[in-house]
Every structure is written in structure tokens, then in C-alpha cells.
């Protein structure tokens, strides 16, 4: 049996310790918020809550669940996440498929423009004026369309498409397939790992979207969950939620947990595709 190098053993052990400490540092605030969401108001205000609930209660969640405004914002966020992710995946994959072809005229210039957008973001005022000129101001399209394609996600998908053997596309052309048929019938079915990866990136971004909604939306009836949460936390706007047995701080924490849990629950089911897609999209075959 081959012996393990002592230096490698200590290196692995150090990695485990460091990563465990980092994970614990990230997890502790979440556990504190979760514990507070199940705790009584007095215990929260007196600082008695750490990672375990004190004066256990479900009234904070009950108050959140019974609030119609919360569910309206939740539904808007689900709508933005599903539709926005679908739009982003369609246009990112189409653009990546074209840019993956090295014989495309102007390919280098387009890639340079994409890299430029990753380094320098558009100023606020021109972005606002453009959205206004396109008639998207105070509509949900303003939240989804301007961020439709991410330069980082685009580059990952380009790398993935370049790893697909050219023989597949050449065989499709011999069979009479045009570029669109080749993409939809051959390339796309082979791209599920990277599509799942990029889809997760877009879904998390759309779910947590706050900046665009604050900039382009004025109608409170269109506010997504993150804007509603921000109003609740920073403006102490919990009056509509509070019942006789709940507390403002507990409701804030319960709302944070409800806004976070959906993404946390979905990730384990797509973790395998996520890891595979990230690796394939970043390593040349």
C-alpha cells in the first residue's frame, strides 16, 4: 500500500480545519436568525438568543404567512425568477453558441465588448434613461431584461460549447440540419450540466434581485420580496404583520428565513449538475 506523504496529510488537515472554520463563520449568523425567528420578542430584545430558540413560538411565522402583501411580493419574485431565468438561459445559450465558433466574423471584437462590460458597469443615469426610453419603467421587464445576459455566465457557456466535438455539428450539417436545428436538437440536449449551472446562477441572481427593482419600480404593488424585506428591516415597517403574540424583530427574522429557504432547498437536488457543469465549463478537454 502506498504511504501518504506527511506534508500532504498536514496540508489536507489544514484545509479541512480552515474550511470548517469559514463554514462555521458563515453558518452562525444564519442559525442565529433562524433561532430568533422561533423566539419570543423579549428574548430577542434582551440578547438571549444565540443558535437555539428561547421562549419557542411559531407566531412570527404565522404572522408572515397570514400577510397578503408578503405573498404578493413572494409571487412576484417567483415570477421574475422563473421567467427571467428562462429568458436569460435562452439568449445566453444562443449568443454563446455563436461566439463558440471561431470562424465567426467579428468574434474577437464581440468578446472584447463582453469583457469590457464585466470590468466596467453602465452608469446609473444612462441605464435609467435607456430603460425609460424603451418604455419598461415601472414594469417587471425592467428587472429582467437589462440583466438578461451575464458576461461571466456567457464565457462559461462558450467554453463548454467549445469542448463539444466538431464532428457532431459536421455530421448534423451532412444530414441537412441548419444552425438552429443543430443547436436545438444536438447541442442543447448535451448541455444540460452547464445549463443547470448557469440556470442556478441566474435564478439566485433574480431571486435576490434588489437594486434594479429599487431603481426602476415605483408601484409598491410590483415590489419583489427582497424590496419588501428591505422595507421591513430598515424602515421598521412590520406593523401590518404584528399580532398579539408576535414581535417586530421576530417577524423580520422569520421573513428573512422564508426568503432564503427556497434557494437552499433547491440546491441539493441540482448539486450534481452544478459541480459537473462548472468543471466542464472551465476545463478544456
Quick rundown:
With 285 residues, this protein is mostly helical. The protein has 14 helices and no strands. Helix 8 (151-162) packs antiparallel against helix 11.
Structural descriptors:
14 helices, 71% helix, mainly alpha, MetI-like fold, 285 residues, single chain
Strand content: under 5%
CATH H-level superfamily title of the largest domain: MetI-like
User: What's the average pLDDT?
Assistant: 83
Main sheet, how many strands, which sense, barrel? Answer: none
Q: Work out the count of structural domains.
A: 2
Just give the CATH class of the largest domain. Answer: Mainly Alpha
Overall helicity? over 70%
What is the correct CATH architecture of the largest domain? Orthogonal Bundle
* Helix segment tally: 14
> Which fold name fills CATH's third level, the topology of the largest domain?
MetI-like fold
| Gap between N and C termini | 32 Å
What is the molecular shape? globular
